[in-house]
Amino acid sequence: MSFKGHRCSLPGVLRLGDSVTHLPPILPGTTLAGRLLRHLRTLLLISPDHPETRIYYRSRTKIAAENERLVRELPPFIVHPFSSFRKCWEMVMYFVLTLHLVTLAFAFAFAPHLSYGVLSGIQLFDCVLCAMLGMEFALKLITGYVSQGEVVLEPSRIVRYRMRWWNVVNRMLLFVPYVLLLDELVRAFYQDAVTIYLCLVIYLYLLCVWRFRSINWYFAIVARSLFGLSEKQIRLLEPIMDTLYVLHWTSCLLYIVPLLTLSLLGDNGFEANFLVDVLWSHDQQRDAYHYPITHRNRLPPLSDLRAYLQQHLPKMSICAEFMAARLDDVEHNVSVTYRYLRALMITFKISVQGGHSLSVSRHFLHEWTQSLLLLGGWIWSTYILLLLIRTIITADASETQYDEILNEIDAFCGRMRLSESLRRKMSRHFACHYRMHYFDVRPIRMQASDNLRRTVLMEIAFEPFLTRSDVFHDLPAYVLQDIADQLRFELYLENDTILAAGSAADTMFFLAMGTAAVYTQDGVELGHLIDGANFGAIALFRTDAQRTVSVVALEVCEVYRLERASFQKLMRPHSYLLGLVVKQAEKRIQDRSVSLQEFPDEQYYDTFFY
């Protein structure tokens, strides 16, 4: 196992090394295929670098135990949701999903203005994206999931969970290649049969808005993995990204809906036919083979389209302004990019209630479209504003107090002119201690009943490390409860010294979470301590005891301390039990003195004397 900033000097057989994966070592003579398969298997196991790993597995010992379960009990094709493979794949999926939904909006909105070759290219590109989304659906069938804080890896449970009908429908609707319908929809547009086109565009708009949750989930993975953003920063960015996403889709919808609804207006037959014929002959020079107009006579070749429109346009037409704007685009050979940017500008203006003009007819259908866009923009902008205010000011009480502590750290470091590295270390210490949510344990202990408080303390300390200590294995449960009540929590960051060789010993330590290295006074590394270890128990029984080794944290370590004075005070009413424990400790000290005469190095191998 590799630890940041730590160079392990232990012999190979004593290192944790491959215990993090529990895979067989690569032996000399292993083929390239065997090496590749082992590397692939490693990518499927839980990775300490995944941003979600530290939430559910708070030490490397737990990571190693989870990988051991994955290697020994489960099929080799099962993918852990916090593996290196999933981290990289989910980052890819964020860009794939975003490109897919953005491409869908653009392609369906501007298909009548795109040439046959460009349409084919867009279809091919989006089909590749759909294929990758389909691969994601298949990979989910062999990837574990988190349910109520539990990581589920059993294949049968994974399949049952993933194959629920609403889950399957939701996933399949995502990777259906809708772009393959574009050719038929453009033909329907030129045949004045736009109802299906219009319904499909609105359906895709609602479907893609429904994908906010998926996009935000993938975005959080990218933000944590690539940029190392905090949860607060992610919460600030998510509504901004969602706003850009909605703005893009609404702009595309705003452009195509008036074109499609023109032919649906009861008394606008001439306007609809004229616009379709102009787009067919002058905008993209369509050919009759791919995009035929067979249901009516086409517009004859004209040298002056505007004069023809003014001559034949009904005097009571409600589409004159809209027709003039579209004809102006054709005469000036306006690009698709310009059309999109103009629609984007109009949508933004309406959404912020800065205008109510789409350059379309004043028919009730268009008026309702404008009104709905205006209402939707007002609701969305208000929602985003309230969300940002809540995130910045009153997001959550515990998170707000945690942020206040960080601000106080910054102010303190600035006032005392502390170095940037020390400021980062202080901030990281609080981040690891509170895990982004501030809490004060004192009122919890004061307000809880004595029985409840003892039950909580026993669950924290009893099973993880008190029962593993051979010093206390003969003590009854009620005494262990008193000991648990006297434990004091401390947190050590990487490379922090937990205890130093040669210092006075007055405290016993319990390592609840983390990994620590043990060194002699000469700096020789002896081994590693992991979750559940205890050391330095001699300090409880000898006032003249000194530390024989140094213990240094290799990762973030959660440690509980038991002071000699507290232990002696709580054991004083139990004189018989105290005498029994002291007698066992004295016997152990005598045995050690005898053994040291034959084996001087044995002093380093018993954690009791650390």
TrEMBL record:
Which example biological process does GO assign this protein? Answer: regulation of membrane depolarization
The beginning of the lineage is: Eukaryota, Metazoa, Ecdysozoa, Arthropoda, Hexapoda
What region holds the Cyclic nucleotide-binding domain?
471-588
SMART domains, alphabetized: cNMP
Its protein name is Cyclic nucleotide-binding domain-containing protein
One of the record's GO molecular function terms: voltage-gated potassium channel activity
Residue ranges of the TM segments: 91-110, 122-142, 163-182, 188-208, 246-265, 372-393
Domain of life where this protein originates = Eukaryota
**GO CC aspect terms:** HCN channel complex
Q: Which UniProt keywords apply?
A: Membrane, Transmembrane, Transmembrane helix
Keyword Iron attached: no
